[in-house]
Amino acid sequence: MSLDIALIQLLNGLSYGLLLFLLAAGLTLIFSMMGVLNFAHASFYMLGAYLGFQAAQWFGFWVALVLAPALMFAFGTVIERWGLRRVHKWGHVPELLFTFGLSYVIVELVQLIWGRVAVPYRVPAELDGPLFSVGGAQFPAFRAFMMLVALGVLGALWWLLARTRIGLVIQAALTHPQQVEALGHNVPRVFMLVFGGGSALAGLAGVVGGAAFVTEPGMAGAVGAVLFVVIVIGGMGSLAGAFIAALGIGCLQTFAVGIDASLAGLFNAAGASITPQTWGYSVWRLTLAQAAPVLPYLLLVLMLIVRPRGLLGTRED
Description:
The structure is a single chain. The chain is an all-alpha fold. 72% of the residues lie in helices and 3% in strands. It has 14 helices and two strands, in the order ααααββαααααααααα. Helix 1 runs antiparallel to helix 10, helix 2 packs parallel to helix 4 and helix 5 crosses helix 6. The termini are far apart. 40% of the residues are buried.
């Protein structure tokens, strides 16, 4: 792999990783505040993409970039107030089952409204094209925009949680909800707003991710599994851990897809003889590019064996 291709692959990996972080940030906030592992979060991402597509059709992409997350914020607050809050008293299992069922409801509704095939969601004309070229490789302008959006969200979250009074209340409600309520703060409302904020972040990821990739009903399932790998490897409830894990997995998958090396080739180059008659030859000849979709899950298994709490995990329940 030449240096210019490697640079473009690195930028593509970072942009994909930052999109994963943008999606994982909302789920991490919800879990760290409420202890709810929202199985419908990837479906929120998909719904945000479809709302972004529809808003872009009517008003343009830049309006959709604001409108779709706002609609997802309202949707999230309604779900928390009239759904999760009602099943919360029965424990975490009913909450998980509620969000699990909700994910399927959203997928079916999306298929009823927009159909089962991909919709023609395109990047805006202002960002359609390469930002720069290195050798014969190009880096799309929209990928750079995705990176700026994700980094902006990261900075905004840090400022909100570390530098504002609202952030102090949120963090205090996480560890000492009864004391915060005794001081006059409405803790259930704080939870509702946090769930709405996490839903809005999923919607924002959907608006930019849906335009960059493919907007279709299967997108929730495609990204959902990788999303949970990110938050488990990073550490449940840790934004910093989710950021590190998302960048690592984004770069890992992006680089792996472009490498055709196999164990058979490595052993043959070292002087060993791996032939079609060798036991397990179908495994030996698998290339790294073919194994790329499995690598995040292998990394997850290793992390659970070596460090079950994840890189920066702080929550144990």
